[in-house]
Amino acid sequence: MPHGLSTAFAIARKDLRTELRTKESINASASFALVILVLFSFAFNLERDEFYAISGGLLWLVFVFAGALIVNRSFSRELPNDCLDVLVASPAPGWAIFLGKAMAAFVLLTIVEAISLPIFGLFYNIHWMDSAGPLVIIILLATWGITIVGAAFSAVIVNVRLRELMLPVLLYPILIPLLIAAMGSTTALLSGEQMTGDNFSYIRQLIGFDAMYTALALYMIEFILVV
Amino acid sequence: MDVTNLTFLFYGYSAAWIVITAFVLLLVSRGRRIDRELSRLKALVDDKQKA
Amino acid sequence: MREKAIWALGLLGAVVMIYNLHTVFLNLPDEAMQGAIYRIIFIHVPAAISAQVFFTVSLVASILFLVKKNHAFDAVAVSCIEVGTMLVLVNLVTGSIWGKSQWGIWWAWDLRMTSQLMCFLLYLGYLVVRPAIAEPTQRATMSAFIAIFAYADIPLVDLAIRLPNVRTQHPGAVLETGQMAPMFIPPFLVGILAVLLISTALVLVRLHQETSQREIDSLRRELHAL
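Above: the input entities. Below: the structure tokens describing the complete assembly.
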């Protein structure tokens, strides 16, 4: 078990190092997030107070669209030069490879979110700093859900035609329960509510989703990562 | 109100049957295509084995 | 022999369905509040229940495929999911028309309809991705994976839309309360049976087609070899 975990970290480090050298994914994803943020400003013509009601929804739409770009790269970056076959054929356990890539995607998406959140606050005059603590927790929980399921599907469709189109078709419906909880809790937080009582059920939902799909993905990835 | 309700009932059941019929037709056309391909390939294999 | 069995099953289903429709339309009175439109329930709900049955069967088939690697299980899974998705569509369409008649709107984002729509989207993803994978074993494995993930999501979706402020308990309450006058129960159960019989026949037809398709693939390989 410790051996697998250190392999996972090694793969995560490798992915992050490759990515941070070129910053391809981060640049593309962050630019995309920025463009969507701007587009949304044209989509709605709301008063500032009214805007708080849709703030959570908007933010998570931006994050999940940006996230799809990042997780798509997780496994497809290994395609040139048969790197994926080599990885799978290596003694590294399948779950470790998968976990490493999911962790790398998680870090990358968190970076993009960290860039987008202040811009979001700026464009829409949302004071997110007031509830920064709980907000960060929700963002981290939901981002983990997005990246673990996204990485799993990225592995599934790595050899499929029209990969970039198929991933959203598969990924977004599965993420709906996670997004509902993330959007609801973020809207509540940004509107000044506390994460207690009713609102705590959002956090429960996030944790439940993360736990279930992390376990399912780790267990089942062995069937997908075969040579 | 009753007449409008009957109209909706008619549309409702019609819609259900249209969806089911469309699916059946899809299955039938796919079945024909498969049968055609199967007999074509079988004939080809027979020819090649005789030759 | 097998084809005869499928025909017999389909015919039986059709007979049961016609008998049930006769009961529903001619022997049952109009409902107090809704008038005639309530009769749509006798196809709306059986479609949903049958779809659930087939999705569960497809889950078991997918798991069995991953364990035993027998393509017959994959064939069962795809057949069940195709027919199941069609049934969910029937449920959505009839529900929408019922909604238009009762509340004046084509779509209300209430618990049940939203949950069914999510179900539809999940399995639509399965059906869209599957043809894009060329190699049969890979296709079967990936499909099984997607089917299991999709099935696991359904209870989560149900939980999520029950979170505060997400969806109202609003319309569709007739089914939530689970109260049905005793005289409606027999046609309701017969309706479920009828839809199940007909859709099982469809699943078997699809299954047969899947087997033929595999035969085509193997003949193609044989041709290549010759």
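Note for the figure: The mean pLDDT of chain A is 91.
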